[in-house]
Amino acid sequence: MRIIGVSVIKNESDILETFVRHNLGYLDALVVLENKSSDKSRQILARLALEGLPLIILDDPEIAHKQSEKLTGLIKKVSAIYNPDWIIPLDADEFLNPDKGETMQSVLADLPEGSVGQMGWRTYVPTASDDPEQADIIKRIRNRRAVESPQYYKVIIPKSVFNEKPFIVDYGNHAVRFENGTYPLEHYILNTLRLAHFPLRSSEQILTKAFVSWLANLSYDDRTIDGWHKQSLYERFVKNIPLKSEELERAAINYAADKGVENSLVEDRVKQIASYELKYTDLMTFHPMASVASMSEDLAGRLREATAQNNEDPGQEYSGAKILSSVEHIEQQSLDVSPLRYLFDMFNPESALDVGFGGAGLDKFREWGATDVKAIGLIDVGGGVRGPDTPSVENVEPSFDLGRKFDLVICSELVNMIEPERGKALIKSLSRHAGKLIFFTASQPGQPGEANMNLQTPDYWIDEWAKEGYRPLVFQTLALRMLSNFSWLKHNSLLLAPEAVAGSLKAFDSFGLDELKRNNADPKEWSPQKPGVYETTLMGKQADETLAQQPDQVLAGTDRELKRILLKRAKVNFDLGNIEESVSDTSVALAITLKLREPLEESVVEFLNSQAKLAEERNDKKTISRIVSIMEKLRAAASEIAKKSS
């Protein structure tokens, strides 16, 4: 029986480490959608993932708290990849708590087939007698309400639901219904499993959370279901009135409870089966004003985007946008960040080699802290290996030898473009350079594309890698596929490691090779994607709209990221004296600026002038002419935008 938890979290640093460690004692894996926290929640999750826990982090930059939509999309992604028997949606303040002598397996075995399970809340209440030095929330807060009125329930979803008809998890995870709005599913109360609930834990936590949550709900929809309980606390935060210990206790007793119900406390410690010590208590501190500042920035950014979108004329084509066609390989370049971020979170590679794709993703590794990255391919954003000795995809020899090893070697969609025998030589070369991990993809039969000479299935490559002593890390490979936006990454990704590395990851033993081969055999859908940098995993309608219809307003963020990378590389090329490449990158970046209707940065225009001066010093008339043409198009486009604005 496989049980996977899913969660959407934001600003939960005081409880998050306990939440992950405790619940993984009952779950096979936990998938967390991190909603752009302003505290240290993201750092805590990253450190936990680096320990090798079966934890998957998805980054969600959207401010509005669309929990029902996001969680439903997340469940559909998890179920499609991992094929679990049960999925349990959990909030960060909720802890699985079976009765003494019960396990999750024994509890769920009693559930009638096809029924949605329901766990009753038991709300825990902070008191003045709690030990303030105890960081573990379920050890510190030991008392709960004697009566839950009303009794709220949270759902456990069986395979028979998420594998059959389209469904929606209601706001708050209290029920499951079909997309047509009906509730034909039987909801069965589990009397031997409770959900320990710690909604209010300290004055700073609850006031800050109320303030941020109230604004998030307002930015989404005024008609929130449970937003009512946040309003009064929001007003306390605004007036800078902290809660006294007795007020906090009273607020927790009355949290989401019927008015006028007399209640009392009973001591009832949460059952813990996982043995652990908290390691990241230094990251648990609350900074209320940081949360407020972050929320203000997000709201301002959303307002700017909304204003820009309202002013757009979708049918208008600016002359400057034509500059995009000047560098064909840039137009075709796309970057899916989420799978790369997962690799970094899980393994923290200090060194990385990209063979074939050209290193566009390595710029992200540098941002996250990698100190030693190298690329062989068409594009190198870092500039560290550009020069006459750097081979390109067209002339790389499969038997290359750089005389060293890297923590991570990446090779994407290259081996399929060379003859089978040369492909086997490339496999040996990649193995020769890999110190720990290999992230490998190759086009397979039925996949659209040109110039392919060696189309093989992922199962074929698994066998080839086995000859070199490498086997796939099944859980992590499936995670990469789940996180991917691009169809070729969803279907082709393999994360491989030598036996010594693979054998050390004991937490993933329950995910066997047969599951990866099952996923390999699933029907494939190959879809195009608009060139750009995709910072987050898209789900549901958002993915369909972005990857298929590709509206410019949705991809504005990816365009800005591509522009940043282009300008960085342009400056590297300029310093190296590669004036033609530098001008090409700058022109594309400027075209993106015009496309987004954003002001031309003075520093970029000055940079283009510096390029012109260098070209003039070299008497490079071709480059000078091109720069003049670019400047004329920029002026014309700027004039056109100014006329429309007036």
Automatic annotation (TrEMBL):
SUPFAM superfamilies referenced in this protein's UniProt entry, alphabetically: Nucleotide-diphospho-sugar transferases
Pfam families: Glyco_tranf_2_4 (PF13704)
Matching InterPro entries: Nucleotide-diphossugar_trans
Protein name as annotated: Uncharacterized protein
